Amino acid sequence: MSKNIRFFSIFILGFTLYYFFDFFCFKSIQTFIKETSGSKALAHTAAYSITLIPLIITLKILFPKKNTFSLFSLDKSILKGLFVAFIGTLPMLIGYFMYFKRVESVNFQSLFINTISSPFFEEVIFRAFLIGILFRFTGLGFISSILFGSLLFAQMHLYQSSNPTELMEIFLITFLGSVFFSWVYFEMDFNLWPAIFLHVFMNLYWEIFNIAENVSGNLYGNIFKILSIILVITVVIYRKQKHKTPFQITGKTLFIKTKPS
């Protein structure tokens, strides 16, 4: 068995085991811990952590000598990620503050789940593992690496839709969101924290202001989000040019790379 076949076989098997473990056990684990601890936020975080085990085992099999924390790209600068994400999402914060009312009451456990726990684990699972491992350690290019993970990420958010039009809007927005987060992750030297904090701040502003019932949003909600995305892209490009670091995503790495990054 060649190295490539072995790698992809283990990778696919590992993610498949994770997917079904998460599908069948996540809610049961969450319910058990919630009933035991009385904390919805703790239960959500613990359930994500436990169902992550198949992915951790997969990485240990594929890369026995590498640090798992590093493979999930969590060993890079947290402050750098926080700074880029905060500056980049200022158009959303300022725009939403000007055009939308703040919510009257906040459930802090739900807020923690929607703005901390879910964004963190979604970035670890989708961007770092499902997309990042393929781009970093195989010959697959950007589009080849992100396609399946982004489609699955988008499919995961379709529960928010209430009609076919809304379903298509949510699918497109979350798919493109995954592509954007992946690009930021790769071009920030495989530092996952910028993508995590972008996800956190975008969800946070959506939660604390009365914008829309789901991610499809409305005119002003989406305008300020697009302005933030443009600003983030500008900041990342400026940073790379300032430090004279090569871009990970180029015409030569869109589909197939001759060497892993």
Automatic annotation (TrEMBL):
Residues 110-204 form the CAAX prenyl protease 2/Lysostaphin resistance protein A-like domain. InterPro entries: Rce1/LyrA-like_dom. GO terms for biological process: CAAX-box protein maturation. It holds the Pfam family Rce1-like. Signal peptide: none annotated. The chain crosses the membrane at residues 7-29, 41-62, 82-100, 124-154, 166-186, 192-212, 219-238. One of its GO terms (molecular function) is endopeptidase activity. The keyword Transmembrane helix applies. Keywords: Membrane, Transmembrane, Transmembrane helix. It comes from the Bacteria. This is CAAX prenyl protease 2/Lysostaphin resistance protein A-like domain-containing protein. It comes from Chryseobacterium angstadtii.
